[in-house]
Amino acid sequence: MKAKFVNEFMHFERSNDPLVTLQVGRRVQIIKWLDTYEITNYVINDDLTIDVNDDVELNNKNLTKFPDFIKFNNVSGWFACSNNQLTSLVGCPSSVGYSFYCSFNQLTSLVGCPSSVDSNFWCRNNKVQFSEKDVKKLCKVKNDIRV
Predict the structure, then answer these.
(1) By the 8 A CB rule, do 144 and 136 touch?
(2) End-to-end CA distance of the chain
(3) Which label site among 10, 16, 105, 140 has the fewest CB atoms less than 10 Å from its CB?
(4) 102: number of Cβ within 10 Å
(5) Are 118 and 97 in contact (CB under 8 A)?
(6) CA-closest candidate to residue 66, choices 40, 53, 47, 84
(7) Half-sphere exposure of residue 70: CA atoms within 13 angstroms, side-chain side
(8) Picking from 5-9, 72-76, 100-104, 133-137, which range would have the lowest pLDDT averaged per residue?
(9) For the CA atoms of 93, 134, 147, 65, what is the dihedral angle to 10 degrees?
């Protein structure tokens, strides 16, 4: 076993399924999920977060949440997850190099949103009407906030 995979087994998550607890195949699960949504130009970090050197387009994918094994870290372009049924932003990137879009979902909280967005942050038409103040509590946005 190569050393880079040893770290994969050091991030334990308790579960009734021993394979989940041992994270057997976690990296494979991540790759399959990214392939399903045609996300390319990515690196899976040692802590199993995902850096993407490109845009991430997840609009209109009928998502209700991101799987527990998906946690984006840095996305250099825009990150779009609008027009889904998302109830949570947990799994979204920590930072976005361009714009972040999460409008037209079922969000009641912005917990899990990026902590920094280098351009725009749009979160209109969700279950809760968010304010600019709500966004600014959690995220440093350099340009436009649309709520």
Answers:
(1) no
(2) 49
(3) 16
(4) 28
(5) yes
(6) 84
(7) 23
(8) 5-9
(9) 40
- Eight-class DSSP state of 47: T
User: Is a pLDDT exceeding 90 seen at residue 20?
Assistant: no
Record the pTM.
0.83
Whether residue 87 contacts residue 65, with contact meaning beta carbons closer than 8 Å, is answered with yes
Least-confidence region, from 10-14, 80-84, 105-109, 126-130: 10-14
The ranges assigned to domains in the chain are: 3-146
Is the distance from CB of 114 to CB of 139 less than 8 angstroms?
yes
Give kind and range of the element (H or E) at residue 96: strand 95-96
Asked if residue 51 lies in contact with residue 73, where contact means CB atoms within 8 angstroms, the answer is yes
